[in-house]
Specification:
The longest helix has 26 residues. By secondary structure, the chain is of the alpha+beta class. The chain has a six-stranded mixed β-sheet, with helices on both faces. A three-stranded antiparallel β-sheet has the order 1-19-18. It has 15 helices and 21 strands. 37% of the residues lie in helices and 17% in strands. The chain starts with a helix and ends with a helix. A hairpin with a 4-residue loop joins strand 7 and strand 8.
Length: 531
C-alpha cells in the first residue's frame, strides 16, 4: 500500500514537472519576435477574420448588446470597418479602426485594448532599479481639454499644483486625447466619466505611443510662463525601519492591530489609504463620513459590522457616504452595505441576464493567473462549470438568468443606520457603486450631492469579464457576461444617477484642497437641524 501511494506521488510529480517545463518553454518565446510581429502588417483576409470573430463573440456572449445602439446601427458600423480595410494593417493600426466599433456599444466595462510591446526581463530589472518612471512622478487630471498637475512627486519642486502640461517630448496631451478618445466609453450616453477615464489612462496611452523612457522632456505653463525641464527616473526614498517594532512583545501589539485593520479595511500601500475609511466632522461630532474608495479590497463584512457599530455607539445623527471615484468591484459588498442603509426587507437586484446556460463558462480564468497554476485551475474548472450551470435558468420568454447574491429577499441589518444620509457621487462612480446608489435613490430621505455618475442607473454589464484574444491581431477584447439590473429602475435610459444638488468642483477647488460638495452638505445639515 505504501509503495502504491509513493508510486502515485511520483506520477503526479512527473506530470507537474512536464506541465511546468512545457509552460516554461512557451513563456520563453523571444520578446524580440513578439515585438516584431506587432510591427508586421496583417493581411486583409486575417483582419476580416478578426472582425468576424468579434461580431460572433459579441452576439453569442454579450447579454444586452443592443441596449444603447440598435442592431441596424451596429451592423452598419461593422460594414464600415470592413470596407475601410483595403490593405494590410499592423495590430496598432487595426486597433484604432476596430476599437471605436466596440466603444459604440456604450458599455463601459467592455473595451478593446491596444497592443503593447513586451520588455525583456533584464530590461525590466534595470528599470526597476532606476526607480519610478518620469510619467508616474506627477498626478495629472484632464479638465476642460487641458492636462494639469495636481501633485508633483518629482525632484524638481519648481513645478507646482495647477501647472498645465503643454507637451511631453514635444507631444501635446491634446494629441493623445484626440487619438484615443473614441476607443473607450462610459455606460450609456453620459459624459461625466470620459475625462476621468482619460486621466486614468493617460500614462498608458502615452507609453503606447512613445514607449518606456528613462527620461522625458516636459514643457509646463505656470503663471503665464513656460517652464522646460527633463524628468528622469527617480529612486523612491526607503523608509527606515523603526527599531521599537522588534522590541519586547507589549510593543508588538499595536503593530499586530494595525495589520488586522489593514486586512479588514483594505489597505493600499501605494496610495497609503484604506478602501473603507470612517472619519468624523470635528466641528460637529454627530456627523460621520464614510469614504468607500472601492468594493474590491478588505473583509467587507467585518469592516461594515465594525463601522456601523461605531456609528451606533457614538450616536451619530448624520452619515455622509462618499462614493466619488469608486470604480465598483464586488456586487456582494454593495448588497452588504445596502443592508445597513435601509430599514426594510429588500431585494436589491434582479437575477442577471446571460445569453445561455454555458455562456459563463467563458470565465477567462487562464488569462488572469500565472501559467504555472494552469494544471490546478484546469482541475477546478469542471466544478465551476457545473455550479454556474445549476444557477442559470430559462424563463417562459426564453431568457436565461443567473441567480445573484442580491437577487434574493434579505432582511435589513439589525444594526442599520437610521439617521440622515447624504451620498456624494461623480463621474468616477461606476459599476457596483452605481448599483448601490441607484438602489438607494428610491429612499426619499437620502440626499445625493455631486454630479451624474459615470455608470448607468438601471444596469451594468459586468459580473464576469473574460479577456478574449483576437486570433490574428492578438488584440485583447474584454467583455461583460452578465447584465446586472437593479430592482429600482429609472425611465431615463442611458444615463447614470443624477444628484439632488449638482456641485462640480473647479480646478481652483482641487488645487486649494477645497471640497464644495462636503461644505454644502454640512451647511445643509446644520440648516435643517436648526429648523
Amino acid at each position: 500500500m505504501h509503495l502504491k501511494i509513493k508510486k502515485n506521488k511520483n506520477i503526479l510529480n512527473t506530470i507537474f514537472l512536464v506541465h511546468f517545463f512545457i509552460l516554461f518553454q512557451i513563456s520563453c518565446t523571444s520578446v524580440a519576435d513578439y515585438n516584431k510581429k506587432l510591427d508586421t502588417p496583417i493581411s486583409k483576409e486575417k483582419l476580416l477574420a478578426d472582425i468576424n470573430f468579434v461580431q460572433h463573440k459579441l452576439e453569442k456572449l454579450h447579454p444586452s448588446l443592443y441596449t444603447y445602439i440598435s442592431k441596424e446601427q451596429f451592423n452598419t458600423k461593422l460594414d464600415s470597418v470592413r470596407l475601410a480595410i483595403d490593405k494590410p494593417l499592423t495590430s496598432k493600426e487595426f486597433f484604432f479602426l476596430l476599437s471605436p466599433l466596440v466603444a459604440s456599444v456604450h458599455q463601459g466595462h467592455m473595451f478593446l485594448s491596444p497592443p503593447f510591446k513586451k520588455i525583456e526581463a533584464k530590461e525590466q530589472t534595470r528599470l526597476t532599479k532606476l526607480g519610478i518612471g518620469p510619467l508616474s512622478q506627477f498626478d495629472l487630471e484632464w479638465i476642460n481639454y487641458k492636462l494639469y498637475v495636481l501633485k508633483n512627486k518629482s525632484s524638481i519642486k519648481a513645478i507646482v499644483a495647477g501647472a498645465e502640461v503643454i507637451s511631453i517630448n514635444q507631444v501635446p496631451p491634446q494629441n493623445i486625447y484626440n487619438k484615443y478618445r473614441n476607443t473607450y466609453s462610459s455606460d450609456g450616453y453620459n459624459t461625466t466619466y470620459l475625462s476621468r477615464g482619460f486621466s486614468k489612462r493617460f500614462s498608458t496611452y502615452f507609453t503606447n505611443e512613445m514607449g518606456v523612457n528613462d527620461s522625458l522632456a516636459y514643457v509646463f505653463k505656470q503663471n503665464d510662463s513656460l517652464i522646460r525641464c527633463v524628468i528622469h527616473r527617480q529612486i523612491l526614498e526607503k523608509k527606515l525601519k523603526v527599531k521599537t517594532a522588534f522590541s519586547a512583545s507589549p510593543k508588538l501589539k499595536p503593530i499586530k492591530e494595525n495589520k488586522k485593520k489593514q486586512r479588514i479595511y483594505g489597505y493600499d500601500p501605494i496610495s497609503k489609504s484604506y478602501s473603507k475609511n470612517l472619519s468624523f466632522v470635528l466641528k460637529d461630532s454627530s456627523i460621520a463620513i464614510l469614504k468607500v474608495k472601492d468594493f474590491s479590497k478588505g473583509n467587507f463584512r467585518k469592516g461594515y459590522k465594525e463601522i456601523f457599530s461605531t456609528l451606533k455607539q457614538k450616536e451619530i445623527k448624520t452619515l455622509i457616504l462618499d462614493l466619488r471615484n469608486n470604480p465598483g468591484g464586488r456586487v456582494a459588498e454593495a448588497v452588504e452595505l445596502y443592508s445597513y442603509l435601509t430599514d426594510k426587507d429588500f431585494v436589491m437586484l434582479q437575477s442577471a441576464i446571460v445569453t445561455s446556460k454555458t455562456s459563463l463558462w467563458k470565465l477567462g480564468l487562464f488569462d488572469k493567473i500565472p501559467k504555472i497554476i494552469y494544471p490546478f485551475a484546469a482541475a477546478f474548472y469542471p466544478f465551476y462549470m457545473g455550479f454556474s450551470t445549476l444557477r442559470t435558468e430559462k424563463n417562459n420568454e426564453k431568457v436565461f438568468s443567473y441567480s445573484l447574491v442580491g437577487s434574493k429577499k434579505r432582511k435589513c441589518n439589525p444594526n442599520h443606520f437610521s439617521g440622515k444620509v447624504y451620498i456624494i457621487i461623480n463621474g468616477g462612480s461606476f459599476s457596483a457603486s452605481c448599483l448601490l446608489a441607484s438602489s438607494l435613490k428610491s429612499n426619499k430621505n437620502i440626499t445625493f450631492v455631486g454630479e451624474e455618475t459615470g455608470g448607468g442607473f438601471n444596469s451594468t454589464v459586468a459580473g464576469l469579464l473574460p479577456i478574449l484574444k483576437l486570433p490574428n491581431s492578438k488584440l485583447p477584447l474584454r467583455i461583460g457576461l452578465m447584465d446586472i439590473k437593479t430592482t429600482n429602475q429609472s425611465e431615463v435610459i442611458g444615463h447614470g444617477i443624477y444628484p439632488d444638488k449638482e456641485i462640480i468642483p473647479t480646478l481652483s477647488d482641487k488645487l486649494e484642497n477645497k471640497d464644495p460638495e462636503m461644505d454644502w452638505i454640512i451647511k445643509d445639515n446644520n440648516l435643517k437641524n436648526n429648523l
